[in-house]
Known about the structure:
The structure is a single chain. The chain has one helix at 2-21, and strands at residues 30-40, 44-49, 52-66, 69-73, 77-83, 88-99, 104-117, 123-134, 148-154, 162-169. The protein has 170 residues and is mainly beta. Strands 1, 2, 3, 4, 5, 6, 7, 8, 9 and 10 form a ten-stranded antiparallel β-sheet that branches. The model has no long low-confidence stretch (mean pLDDT 90).
Amino acid sequence: MKKTITMIAVLLAFVLNVSAQDQIPEAPQTEFALQLKVTLGETYSCGETQHGRRTVIPITGGTFEGPNIKGVILNGGADYQLANAAGRTEVEAIYSIRTDDGVNIHVRNRGIIASSKDAQGNPSFYFRCAPQFEAPADSKYAWMNNSLFLCAPSFSSGFQGIVLNVWRVK
Length: 170
């Protein structure tokens, strides 16, 4: 009798586990990491290339702040954009930031801007990026090297530039 009850318990656990695997998995959680307020220089175009219309937006500075990090955006980077005729733009921004305690961190932020129409024919706008941070391995910011991040812009009439809100995927 004891063996039968044990066997039923094992079988029940197996059946419950299989049905749980058939369900949609829970989405990864995120936590706010930082907000970057990026100042920009004058945009210029390289024209229509074999890959699409190439636009370059110089990154001239700015500030950033989050729960565990704060500092300035260094002059000298740029946002390289490649647009096609279908309303899709690939973005790749390459720049550096410096924390308020003097640590330099390299940033490479890739993403997509897409203008299209939704199922009802209304205009839609999509702008998301995935920044990668390269911090010194021996710094208190090394945690940024081993995480995935997502960012989305917010637009402010009181700021001349772009505001990027960044979340770490847990």
